[in-house]
Amino acid sequence: xxxxxxxxxxxxxxxxxxxxxxxxxxxxxxxxxxxxxxxxxxxxxxxxxxxxxxxxxxxxxxxxxxxxxxxxxxxxxxxxxxxxxxxxxxxxxxxxxxxxxxxxxxxxxxxxxxxxxxxxxxxxxxxxxxxxxxxxxxxxxxxxxxxxxxxxxxxxxxxxxxxxxxxxxxxxxxxxxxxxxxxxxxxxxxxxxxxxxxxxxxxxxxxxxxxxxxxxxxxxxxxxxxxxxxxxxxxxxxxxxxxxxxxxxxxxxxxxxxxxxxxxxxxxxxxxxxxxxxxxxxxxxxxxxxxxxxxxxxxxxxxxxxxxxxxxxxxxxxxxxxxxxxxxxxxxxxxxxxxxxxxxxxxxxxxxxxxxxxxxxxxxxxxxxxxxxxxxxxxxxxxxxxxxxxxxxxxxxxxxxxxxxxxxxxxxxxxxxxxxxxxxxxxxxxxxxxxxxxxxxxxxxxxxxxxxxxxxxxxxxxxxxxxxxxxxxxxxxxxxxxxxxxxxxxxxxxxxxxxxxxxxxxxxxxxxxxxxxxxxxxxxxxxxxxxxxxxxxxxxxxxxxxxxxxxxxxxxxxxxxxxxxxxxxxxxxxxxxxxxxxxxxxxx
Length: 588
Description:
By secondary structure, this protein is an alpha/beta fold.
């Protein structure tokens, strides 16, 4: 019989003065050496339950109104965490139970370096390792694949990308080798190759140390890849629990069946029908676009080199077409999008939007051109002003551009718009905090469509959403793209989502394109080694198909060149009439 590490018995968690229960009479066990995944849609109570285990819910307006949280130790009576004081809990958090949070920016101290925060955790729980704390922290940064760990050790959180910050959080949780690791959506913001490495790392450390892992996710591919057991949560209750293979093969509860049906399955669903090569002129034509950022060094912070974030990128986007941009964090996807919106300055190239080079416009001409190109950002929480109602959010772009209309006409058009994106009819006078994450993202999509743009750039718009809401948002984007005849530039690291929505694919690696062509051809017959590496890292769709594989490694960040130096011009080979691949020896 495996050793019990954690037992939840009839746990009930409530919020507010009325003590409204959010988690109801929940019982669950976690054993040494297993990974238990907790799945369910947003609002099902997953995060509330694990925060109750850590007793963090006490500081967020919630309280445990019933039940026990038993932490087991060999040869000792179980410790009921519900009855422990805050002082006693400090000795448990981090040492016995560690947690990886979903949002690393709000979990890391912005005024402390990454290294100081890791060393602090070691000193708090392992004071006898004071002399080796730095070496241990740097080694852990290496384990979670941080590039140049010694330099990262001295950086602050705001100097790192979202994926790097999440790796710091994972390193901080694992550095003291806890008995129990709670991971709340730890790979949501990571690209597929880094996700594969983090999952491999967690599994490897779990086998080495025998720790138990409680893993929260909405990605059924991640569940299939890593889970030993699965618990399905709905409205604060566990509705199904069992070995991963049985839950996937014979889901007993209707809700579990719906979750599995809604999950996008890479290379198993019917392939998206290939779009015929467009005959009309492109709505957006990008030629030899390059963007570089200065690298400063020395005491005087002199400009000594350039980071080539985007290098010699060319592609066309046609009306009614969806072009997906894929690649790992740091490859230049978001920098490319920001160049097209003029949020980042491009040093070279052209971007013709409606026949005008948007990169050369300024003043009123640039403001007018931006009516035709809009963006949906990854994080709807940060993209919406919490003090503005939905009506004010949707009217603001019109007001800024002087496109006023009568209140009656405005109400009618705004109501029609929110209906098109699937929001409730009473949404206009509500505020962002009154909506779920998926509904907030639909508000962002509605705001982008207010001006009826010719091009919409969607930067990871569904990465943080659960599978059911993800499917709804993708359906909205597909429908509006076709109805409006608009070009959609879709940035994503989720290959199943790309397969579901894309007509063509651009593969970015270290700032440049290495492969491009029809989605069906690129996904079925990837020609570049980097594309193959990306596709091999996609999580499996069933526990029976998982296999031991060492995650691929290699430099993926944008290259740095001395001032005035440039990489060689790319040479391209044809795989088919529409499918092209960059010669490997010429790849940046």
